[in-house]
């Protein structure tokens, strides 16, 4: 983390949401570096502990990544989430080949 041009240790200074977001950013950066040979990115509940503005920013970044990588034959993005608003922000129907919504049917 950088504050007033000085690098600071994030340990003990970040919220849970900031830690989650930093982790996702690092994973996306690694995917960009190695993505030519390995085009799979899986995110499980990526919006946990994020506020709405960071959720929107993450959705926008993922949507842009999909637009850029769309022509890559081995690119796959798997998002597991309960956050329907996040998926709407990502505009999933605009660029998905498959989109599954799975839910539990109560039978008792």
Automatic annotation (TrEMBL):
List the GO cellular component terms. Answer: condensed nuclear chromosome; Mre11 complex
Q: Which residues cross the membrane?
A: 20-43
Q: Which GO terms describe its biological process?
A: chromosome organization involved in meiotic cell cycle; double-strand break repair; telomere maintenance via recombination; telomere maintenance via telomerase
- In which domain of life is the source organism classified? Eukaryota
The protein's matches in InterPro entries, at most eight in alphabetical order, are given as: P-loop_NTPase
Kindly name one Pfam family recorded for this protein.
SbcC_Walker_B
Keyword annotations for this protein, in alphabetical order, are: Membrane, Transmembrane, Transmembrane helix
A molecular function annotated in GO for this UniProt entry is: G-quadruplex DNA binding
State the protein's name: P-loop containing nucleoside triphosphate hydrolase protein
Which organism encodes this protein?
A: Viridothelium virens
């Amino acid at each position: 983390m950088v504050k007033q041009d000085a690098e600071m240790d994030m340990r003990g200074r970040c919220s849970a949401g900031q830690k989650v977001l930093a982790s996702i950013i690092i994973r996306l950066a690694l995917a960009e570096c190695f993505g030519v040979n390995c085009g799979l990115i899986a995110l499980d509940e990526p919006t946990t502990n994020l506020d709405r503005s960071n959720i929107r920013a993450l959705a926008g970044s993922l949507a842009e990544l999909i637009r850029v990588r769309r022509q890559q034959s081995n690119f796959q993005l798997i998002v597991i989430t309960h956050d329907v608003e996040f998926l709407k922000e990502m505009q999933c129907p605009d660029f998905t080949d498959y989109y599954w919504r799975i839910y539990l049917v109560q039978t008792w």
